[in-house]
Amino acid sequence: MFFRNLTLFRFSPAVADDLHRLDQVLHDHTLRPVGGLEMFTRGFVPPVERGDEAPLTHSVAFFTLFTVGGQDKMLPASVVNGELQRKVQKITEEEGRKVGGRERKRIKEDLFNELLPRAFVQESRLSGYVDTRSGWLVLDTASRKAAENALTQLREALGSFPAVPLAPEEGPRVLLTDWLANGTLPAGLQLGDECELRDPASSTGAIIRARRQEMDSEEIKEHLRNGKQVFQLGLVFDDRISFVLGEDLVVRKLKFLDVVLDAMDDSHADATAEADASLALMTLELERLLGRLAEWFVLPRPENA
Question: Which residues, by range, are in coiled-coil regions (predicted)?
């Protein structure tokens, strides 16, 4: 249940009012098995398994959890090209002629259509939740592409869902660099034990990745004095959550610390009660963290839909 990464979007109060119908509309966009000649399918699956009639959302207070499922055909190009090479070689040997480019392309397309129905199917799950009180869409992924795909599924189901990427008024890279260089972290925030430093003037410049290292060490300070800036920084919030924050404001390696996990009650009556407790604990902890991120980087909530 606990998320490991956070890609964030924001939406207005008017959009939040429309999300009461989320469970209803998702039923028309459930995941179906991938067809014989399809490469992939996407759709919604129950975020909490409760048998055949499990709902497609799970809500606690202002937070509604959902899960986007996927089925992808795995047909490596090397497999198709290997079959193509054998087919071309057979024609050459049996018919004594050279296979031209146009014929080669046609043979490859035929092989692809022949092999696709027999390809291995890989399943995936991406969970997220909407916070209608504060206007956050929170997706458990560090991949921008995966996040955009999940957002597309929500927009198709709802007809419209104008959630927008974060638009910080404070430059994240500048602020992260200042925190590391000068130790001027906001109250409740501490440095973790990893960072990624880069030369911002060059896309091909040196990249320094430090893990399990004291962030106030002379080695780190020397890199900063030489002009490198922070692109990712490990942080600890209120001794309750550790994470790595990127200059793209994606939260990676999210981990709830023992003081949070110890608050979990193991004596739940069933899977629904356990899901309620986990979702409530996670979302309330993240609500505090996201609220502070909004303060630190000035992340305004859209006022209009």
Answer: none
Query: Among residues 67, 84, 66, which one has the least CA distance to residue 75?
Result: 84
Rounded Cα gap, residues 214 and 57, in angstroms: 42
DSSP output for 154-185:
HHHHHS----EE---SS-HHHHHHHHHHH--P
Amino acid at 199: D
- Single-letter amino acid code for the residue at 166: L
pLDDT of residue 51: 63
Listed as own residue / partner, the contacts of 101-110 with beta carbons closer than 8 Å and 24 or more positions apart are: 108/80, 108/84
* Model pLDDT, residue 268: 59
Beta bridge partners of 74: 120
Spatial neighbors of 135 by CB under 8 A, at least 6 apart, are 10, 11, 12, 13, 15, 16, 301, 302
In angstroms, the CA 144 to CA 92 distance is 46
Token duo for residue 242: 């550790």
3-class state of residue 244 by DSSP: strand
User: Do 236 and 265 contact (CB within 8 A), yes or no?
Assistant: no
In which band, very low, low, confident or very high, does the pLDDT at 303 lie, cut at 50, 70 and 90? confident
